[in-house]
Amino acid sequence: MEWRDFDGTMRNACTQCAFVHWGNYSIGVGALVVKDGKLLLVRRAQEPGKGFWTNPGGYIEQLEPIAETIEREVFEESGVRAVVQNIVAVRDQPRSIHNVYIAFSMEYVAGEPKPDGFEVDAAGFFSSQEMEGMNVAGFTRWLADVALHGREPGLAADRKPIVDLPGYGLFRV
């Protein structure tokens, strides 16, 4: 490996083949599940964020479609079944491992909130007023505003695209 300039950015590249290390990235997903005007929140039992209330979420797995990731994370953390509707918010956080976080509005399907007892020690649906007296993480407060007071529906899942694209997760206006 050696450092080479690619369009003004130094990148580590193999001296024997065409491999270029383009950087370190992570993609997080978050669920905004609203039922009866209340948002599903879970209280973190581990760091980072231990003791803070957040929306359910996690990081995508290498071979798992993003919609399946967030549906799985919601069920694992809260026992609630929900399905993806729209992408309603994106956070871009450049740092040593560049993080992109995609928030989904999700349709509640079934289940009463129950913590997993490992990552999460409490779970429930809460109104804006109830959240005022809770230890809600700052970013989650912003997402709660998106979920409960958003003015646009966001990008909708395209489940029947005009072209057959197996393996694609497609969202559109």
Major β-sheet annotation? 9 strands, mixed
Low-pLDDT parts are none
* Strands, total number: 12
Mean pLDDT: 95
Radius of gyration: 19 Å
> What distance lies between the first and last C-alpha atoms, to the nearest angstrom?
42 Å
Provide the β-strand percentage band.
35-45%
Question: What is the number of helices?
Answer: 3
- Secondary-structure element order, N to C: EEEEEEEHEEEHHEE
Description of the molecule:
- The structure is a single chain.
- With about 170 residues, the chain is of the alpha+beta class.
- Helices cover about 15% and strands about 40% of the residues.
- A hairpin with an 8-residue loop joins strand 5 and strand 6.
- The radius of gyration is 19 Å and the shape is globular.
- The chain starts with a strand and ends with a strand.
- The mean pLDDT is about 95.
Question: How do the helices and strands line up, and which of them pair or pack?
Answer:
Layout: E1 2-6, E2 9-13, E3 20-21, E4 25-35, E5 38-44, E6 53-54, E7 57-59, H1 66-78, E8 81-93, E9 98-110, E10 120-126, H2 128-132, H3 138-149, E11 155-157, E12 171-172
